[in-house]
TrEMBL record:
GO biological process per UniProt: amino acid transport
Highest taxon in the source lineage: Bacteria
Name of the protein: Leucine-specific-binding protein
Residues covered by the Leucine-binding protein domain: 29-208
Keywords tagged on the record: Amino-acid transport, Signal, Transport
Signal peptide: 1-26
Family of this protein: Belongs to the leucine-binding protein family.
Gene: livK
Length: 208
């Protein structure tokens, strides 16, 4: 099994087990929801995240479920829209789910995670912006590396392998893009390559 899918499986089991114990197993199923990007710019990342979660759920249920309870999952499309992600998270809270998986986009989880926190529901995300887990939110869990982990590797590659002297950074004007810009500049420091130009774009922009 792919390591990321295995990690998702462990996370599902842990949060569902804790939630089941807290509720006295009054429900016959453990309800979870995937709130992910199935359309729009984040469709690839959201679909992969959903597929990993669904594979884990299938394997857990085949092995007997969580304390004998089967996991029942539903999926909602955020359309890569932070406002939609927040509304879907509010609905999941109203539906009394045990855990929420997604959204994956950093900008969306930054908006929606306040709702899951307010309800005390574990919320797992693939978002990479470092600020996601710097909020002191005890209910947010990340399944991916942060940009602070990835960008130093990119910086070393540009400096040591490509031997670049200067670069331009083109980034998306959202939490993910701005976080990546900050991380790469921090990783490069005052050495080479030097960032000579910073160009922002909007998600979905086609006219440059």
């Amino acid at each position: 099994m792919h390591p990321q899918k295995r990690q998702v499986l462990k996370l599902i089991a842990a949060c569902a087990l804790a939630a089941s114990a807290a509720s006295g197993l009054a429900q016959q199923t453990v309800k979870v929801v995937n709130i992910v990007e199935l359309s729009g710019p984040g469709a690839t990342a959201g679909t992969n995240f959903k597929n990993g979660a669904e594979l884990a759920i299938k394997e857990i249920n085949a092995a007997g479920g969580i304390l004998g309870r089967q996991i029942a999952s539903t999926t909602s499309d955020t359309q890569s829209n932070p406002g939609m992600a927040k509304g879907l998270t509010q609905k999941a809270v109203d539906d009394d789910v045990f855990a929420i998986f997604g959204p994956v986009f950093s900008g969306s989880i930054m908006v929606s995670m306040a709702e899951s926190r307010r309800a005390g529901i574990p919320n797992f995300t693939g978002g990479e912006a470092a600020s996601i887990t710097q909020q002191g939110n005890p209910y947010i869990f990340r399944t991916s590396f942060t940009q602070d982990t990835a960008m130093p590797k990119v910086a070393r590659y540009m400096r040591d392998q490509l031997k670049l002297k200067s670069i331009a950074v083109i980034y998306v004007n959202n939490d993910f893009g701005k976080g990546g810009l900050d991380s790469i500049k921090k990783a490069l420091g005052s050495g080479e390559p030097k960032v000579l130009s910073e160009i922002s774009t909007d998600s979905g922009q086609i006219d440059f």
